[in-house]
Amino acid sequence: MSKEVKAWAATSPEKTEPISITRRAPDDEDVAIDIKFAGICHSDIHTVRSEWGSTTYPLVVGHEIAGVVNAVGKNVTKFKVGDHVGVGCMVNSCRQCTNCQDGEEQYCLSGVVLTYNSRDPKDGTITQGGYSQYLVVDQAFVLRVPETIPLDKAAPLMCAGITLYSPLHHWHAGPGKRVGIIGFGGLGHMGVKLAKALGSEVTVFSQTNSKKELGLRLGADNYIATSEPDVFSKLSRKFDLIINTVSANIPLELYLSCLRRDGSLVQVGAPEHPLQISPFSLDAQRVGIHGSMIGGIAETQQMLEFCGEKQIFPEIETIPASYINEAYERVMKSQVKFRFVIDVSTM
């Protein structure tokens, strides 16, 4: 049967508020989840404010979801009632294209079904995300949370964690590699922890030294204030991989000059304006600039197992649902260290 549940939704670009929504009845392949915690991602705010294309209101956002299995369909073999599980940024894909067949569902050639503000192929409705009490998801897009990861800290791993783990994994971060992380916020601090756990030498690039002590404590080997003079000339050709987590337009050519021959700069932040890059900054040392978007289901499960084994968790501030609007304002002002997580029991 379908189920009416409490949720917290954007009813306009300016406002989120409590509402009730109806979740579809689980089918034979579905897992029904009692949501316990939902992380707040910058993407939620962009979508609520209709800054990334058209938003269908009212909309429940949230794609950093952690909870407990409530029920399973008769064909579900991967999960049972009581399991700790998570759901990230996607809830379905075509499963037939070459990317899906390769386990890279996030790059589905027919268009991945996002956890919110997408069309659900199972019932034709607009998908509604994790700021709610309950969710129904096909078992193929549910993730197992290891017992060694607390559910509140598991939630941000579903987006922030995999967004950094995937490029680190793809570009072979590890012993002997120098990795730079641009930005030290919700994404950046996870990049530091993961890169360090993988064995890399890690450097944070931040505008100021205001978070230097914390950055070094969380695993950075070096912390660079980019506002200081002559910083980039001292770092010429030092890095194998640099990941840019910031959503502002910054002078990427300065960071490209820090890459060794064949090094890569990977863009995971989403700035408002197009990137401005001279081809000469790429040609000089055969460096490249790339994009990366979360990870496939198998890679995300691998990330969760790695985090459970190494005890790598995000730094979080747990909040009641009634604080969501204030939390958004603090996120926009970079006044959180480092991820807000909603306690869904407060809805």
UniProtKB/TrEMBL annotation:
CDD domains in alphabetical order: CAD1 (cd05283)
Domain of life, per lineage: Eukaryota
Boundaries of every Enoyl reductase (ER) domain copy: 11-342
UniProt keyword annotations, A-Z: Metal-binding, Oxidoreductase, Zinc
Cofactor: Zn(2+)
Keyword check for DNA-binding: no
Family of the protein in this entry: Belongs to the zinc-containing alcohol dehydrogenase family.
Record-given protein name: NADP-dependent alcohol dehydrogenase
Organism lineage: Eukaryota, Fungi, Dikarya, Basidiomycota, Agaricomycotina
